[in-house]
Amino acid sequence: MKKANLDDVSHRNSVPILAWDFHYEYLNELKAIFADLKKVNKISNQFTWNEKNLQIEKRIKDEVVVVTDLDLKIVFASNGIKRMTGYKEDEVLGKTPKMFQGPETSKIVLKEIRAAIKLQIPFEKTIENYRKDGRTYKCKINGVPVFNLKGELTHFIAFEKEVA
Predict the structure, then answer these.
(1) Are 49 and 146 in contact (CB under 8 A)?
(2) Which of 18, 43, 72, 154 gives a 20 to 30 Å CA spacing to 4?
C-alpha cells in the first residue's frame, strides 16, 4: 500500500514540471511576439503608416517580418530571424537583405524583386538564401511597399517564411 502511494506521488510531481517547461517556452514566445509588435508599432506611428492591408499582427506569429527603409537598410527584424537565418536582430540592423544572398541565389529573381521595388508594387517570390553558417534555405518572400497616410512611400516590409 505504501509503495503505491510513493509511485503516485512521483508521477504527480513529474507532470507539472513538463507542463511548466512548455508553459515557459510558450510565454517566452508570446513575450517575443509582443516585443516585436511594440517595435513595429513604434515605426508605424512615427511614420503614420496606412496599415489597413498589412496584417502585421496576424502574420508576425508565423512569419519573419523584416522592415527596410527606402535605401533597403534593415530597420527591424522580428525574433524569428534568428531561427531562420542564424543572425540575431542586432546583427542585421543597418544592413541590406543582400547579406542573405550568395552564389546559389537566382539573379533573375533578384532582378524581378528590384523591378517590383522600383515600381513600388507588392511581390511574392521564392529565393535561395544563406544562413549565417553558410547553409542555404528556400525563402518565400512577400514584399510590400508601405505608404504613410499622405500616400508617400516610407518603408518596405517583407514577410518571409522558409519553405521546403
Answers:
(1) yes
(2) 18
Beta strands in 43-104 (DSSP E): 64-68, 74-77
Q: How many domains does the chain have?
A: 1
Query: What percent of the chain has a predicted confidence (pLDDT) above 70?
Result: 82
pTM for the complete prediction? 0.77
Instruction: Look up residue 35 and give its three cell numbers.
Output: 516585443
Q: Residue 89 class from Cβ within 10 Å (0-12 exposed, 13-18 middle, 19+ buried)?
A: middle
**Residues listed for the chain:** 164
Cβ atoms of 73 and 96 within 8 Å: the answer is yes
Q: Which residue(s) pair with 143 in the sheet?
A: 123, 158
The pLDDT tens digits of the residues spanning 49-71 come to 766 667 788 888 899 999 999 99
Domain membership of residue 36 as a residue range: 2-163
Alpha carbon 106 to chain centroid, angstroms:
22
CATH of the domain at 123: 3.30.450.20
pLDDT digits (tens, 9 = 90+) for 70-94: 999 999 999 999 999 999 999 999 9
